[in-house]
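ok posting inputs for the cytidine-5'-monophosphate job
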Amino acid sequence: MLEDKRILLIISGGIAAYKSLDLIRQLRKRGAWVTPVLTKSAEQFVTPLSVSALAEEKAYRDLFDLTDEAEMGHIQLSRSADLIVVAPATANLMAKMVTGQADDLASTLLLATDTPILVAPAMNVRMWLHPATQRNLATLKGDGVGFVGPNEGDMACGEFGPGRLAEPVEIVVAVEAALAEGPLTGRRIVVTSGPTHEPIDPVRYIANRSSGAQGTAIARALLALGAEVVFVTGPAEEPRPEGAHVVEVETAKQMMDAVAAAMPADAGVFAAAVADWRVDGAGDSKIKKQDGEIPSLNFLENPDILATISQSKSDRPALVVGFAAETDDVIENATKKRLRKGCDWIVANDVSPETGIMGGRENAVVLISDDGAEHWPRMQKDAVARQLADRIAAKLG
Ligand code: C5P
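and the output
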């Protein structure tokens, strides 16, 4: 049920806009309050009168409507909702969201808010598959915007393929999922993941074998418990966790800056395999191969993100979790690491090649805290992530 949830429904122009009427009806039936907003082109497909009759609320249309400003300014309109739903979302409105344009009421509301947003796109197959729209989709997902659909099928324009608006009942299910409360609802957690790449010159770099699998699984598990997740990742193949605010970085220094910018947070989970050193003087020109000469590299120490955040006077999250990938004396080294860095927990694992953990799907970890060392059985990285997320939820209360 969606009893007394407030949904701001933005309807943009497209033939599928007629389905928004059924969506309003279904949301109302489940107890939600729906405030409709129409773009100019949406009014070509549905009338403000029918929309507002079904919503039993005024349909908002114009940014410069002074009556609206007297009743409720656009800032308040966007912030008083529990969820903003854009259905249907045209390619044009998605593009505006990506670039942060605010040239009408709908786009201004979308820019002026920090309320979660759920988008249900609907457009012609070619428009949906166009690299520009796919780029916009990836960017919006990285901004933490949720998506439902589009579905594949016959389209009003006579073509077949992905681009049909998700059915109202599917959108309602997605709305319910987006509003579902978990033990971490209202908590903000920063997760680092993946390797870092440290340039040697413009074409070469130093990296490590981290796949980002464990960090991504942790981000997903935290999201599933309702947390707001800022996912700071180095270059990794692993698909990004949907619903997280994704920040892509390459180097340790960039990761440090991104983590600092993401503070304050309730918890930090530092699962990235950060390079300890960077190459001094990695410049703009490629190191040339010269007969008989072997170049030597000088290293500088990278910032230690975990230690910096753990020891921060102003920005330390209530719970800081580090990782320790060790090949020898796992528990002893990890226990020392926890004290040296100043974090609360260390998730330690043995990454000797014979364990198959680095780059694999399974992990066997030891959780080291004030209470000592707790051995978890070998299990899928997803299961380790869920168990860790449960622990974090219990700790943050
Ligand atoms: O020092 P070591 O790399 O073994 O420590 C591992 C832990 O410290 C991991 O949680 C890793 O994400 C974090 N770390 C960091 N910044 C570094 C090096 C490691 O946050 N420069």
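notes: The first helix runs from residue 19 to 29. Residues 192, 252, 270, 272, 274, 276, 302, 304-306, 322-324, 337 surround cytidine-5'-monophosphate (CB under 6 Å).
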